[in-house]
């Protein structure tokens, strides 16, 4: 539970009442989620409602699992070391300075009572359980989670690529595997360490694979016994094409470009098993690998099922073109969680794709409609026609399909960078990323693995006499043994990937 500061005259240690659990000081707009839709909606609202916020007539409360918004299209470059990981995230408290930020997780919503059930770090420490927060308007934008399949071994050995932590962990892991291959005398261990499997041929998988292959090929020059041709990269895609958003022709070009770099692209193939780090594919292939990256799609956040709001057959909120949740009053949604009608499509019943290109634009319209509702003005429909996409295939390589024009190679890669730099929130982040790109053109790549950051207490715990290989209770880890079986969360960027215009 979040507690307020002690007021004058109160005895220190006296329990304080959570200001969010009581009635709001004004009309409370609760924003559930601090991702694309959540952050941008709150950002536009604090501009549109500046006078009301100053008077205390309106309160904007953002409940987010993380204190930052991750700009996911830059995760591949962060993983490759082209961008510092702290520059691909935007701190919510700095950007949303007129909003109240509560770090926690919404576990249920009862819109009939206008309440949301929230768990925070404080409620866990206090043992008080989740608290109920009342609201007047609800913006539900929890985003999505990885869509996983019951593949044997995936939960034990799969690596996700949806968060900045996963991106940096994957970079450290790839370099660590090269260290293992360089130091082992066992050919089987070496082969498994130098085999990298990516499952999913969308933006997340292709861009991550392209950037990391570039990085690993460059890094190999600093190993005396690991050559670029020793590295084996495999892309597994269940359909008959990759990067469908850039069109069939550009998708075929992307496959040719990847294969030219000795990347094994397997179309119409599925991952059947990865138990004991043995990859088994549906085409009958079997080979060992210590790196299985899962980027095979997303699904709506589980909290949507814990609401009394209407869902479609895919678990997304049924919405009107004005971004209201169907059949409700004062409930709004956009982005991955919302099934928003595409009014620009000639196809009956067409929905907007759950990608960041729509999410950012929907957030602006959503904020305008909430402001209009507060001022008794009519809401407007969301309408945006999809105009194309761009994708990076590694340094100086890319594909693009924009306004019917097809680009490939350096021009597409340059367009990819320019577009995403323009979409990156805050001038601060734009300047830092541009500076890093300029410096990376003047100096050599960084090839350092900081895998010990994942277990910061390891060195001290061993010095203090902790049992090797055992993780202490409530501690971040005590062992640096890279052969120990690791369990990592799965994830992907299948939704935010097609952010490009």
Automatic annotation (TrEMBL):
Domain of life: Bacteria
Coiled coil: none
Species: Streptomyces tsukubensis (strain DSM 42081 / NBRC 108919 / NRRL 18488 / 9993)
Stated family: Belongs to the NADH dehydrogenase family.
The protein's name: NAD(P)/FAD-dependent oxidoreductase
FAD/NAD(P)-binding domain ranges (all copies): 28-350
Keyword field: FAD, Flavoprotein, NAD, Oxidoreductase
Keyword DNA repair part of the UniProt annotation: no
PANTHER family: NADH DEHYDROGENASE (PTHR43706), NADH DEHYDROGENASE-LIKE PROTEIN RV1812C (PTHR43706:SF45)
Short name of any one Pfam family annotated for the protein: Pyr_redox_2
GO molecular function per UniProt: NADH dehydrogenase activity
């Amino acid at each position: 539970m979040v507690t307020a500061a002690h007021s004058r005259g109160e005895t220190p240690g006296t329990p304080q009442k959570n200001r969010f659990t009581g009635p709001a000081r004004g009309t409370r707009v609760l924003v559930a989620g601090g991702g694309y839709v959540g952050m941008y909606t709150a950002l536009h609202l604090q501009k549109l409602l500046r006078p009301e916020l100053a008077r205390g007539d309106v309160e904007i409360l953002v409940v987010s699992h993380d204190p930052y918004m991750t700009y996911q299209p830059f995760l591949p470059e962060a993983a490759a070391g082209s961008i510092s990981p702290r520059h691909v995230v935007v701190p919510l408290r700095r950007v949303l300075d007129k909003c109240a930020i509560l770090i926690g997780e919404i576990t249920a919503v009862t819109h009939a009572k206008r309440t949301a059930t929230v768990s925070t770090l404080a409620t866990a420490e206090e043992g008080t359980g989740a608290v109920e927060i009342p609201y007047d308007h609800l913006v539900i934008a929890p985003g999505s989670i990885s869509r996983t399949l019951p593949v044997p071994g995936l939960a034990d050995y799969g690596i996700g690529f949806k968060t900045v932590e996963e991106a940096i962990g994957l970079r450290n892991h790839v370099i660590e595997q090269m260290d293992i291959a360089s130091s082992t005398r066992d050919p089987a261990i070496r082969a498994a360490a130098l085999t990298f499997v990516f499952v999913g041929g969308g933006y997340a998988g292709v861009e991550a694979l392209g950037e990391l292959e570039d990085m690993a090929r460059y890094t190999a020059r600093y190993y005396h016994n690991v050559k670029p041709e020793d590295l084996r990269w495999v892309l597994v895609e269940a359909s008959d094409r990759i990067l469908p958003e850039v069109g069939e022709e550009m998708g075929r070009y992307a496959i040719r470009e990847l294969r030219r770099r000795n990347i094994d692209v397997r179309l119409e193939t599925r991952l059947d098993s990865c138990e004991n780090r043995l990859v088994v594919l549906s085409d009958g292939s079997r080979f060992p690998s210590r790196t299985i990256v899962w980027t095979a799609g997303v699904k709506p956040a589980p909290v949507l099922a814990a609401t009394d709001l209407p869902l479609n057959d895919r678990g997304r909120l049924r919405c009107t073109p004005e971004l209201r949740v169907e059949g409700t009053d004062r409930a709004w949604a956009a982005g991955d969680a919302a099934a928003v009608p595409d009014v620009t499509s000639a196809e009956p019943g067409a929905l907007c794709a759950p990608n960041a290109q729509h999410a950012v634009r929907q957030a602006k319209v959503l904020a305008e409609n909430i402001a209009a509702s507060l001022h008794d003005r009519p809401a407007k429909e969301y309408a945006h026609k999809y105009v194309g996409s761009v994708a990076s295939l590694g340094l100086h390589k890319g594909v693009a399909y924009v306004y019917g024009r097809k680009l490939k190679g350096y021009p597409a890669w340059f367009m990819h960078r320019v577009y995403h730099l323009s979409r990156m929130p805050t001038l601060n982040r734009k300047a830092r990323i541009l500076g890093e790109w300029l410096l990376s053109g003047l100096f050599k790549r960084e090839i350092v693995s900081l895998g010990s950051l994942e277990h910061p207490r390891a060195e001290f715990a061993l010095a203090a006499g902790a049992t090797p290989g055992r993780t202490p209770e409530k501690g971040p880890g005590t062992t640096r043994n890279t052969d120990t079986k690791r369990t990592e969360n799965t994830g992907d960027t299948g939704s935010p990937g097609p952010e490009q215009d």
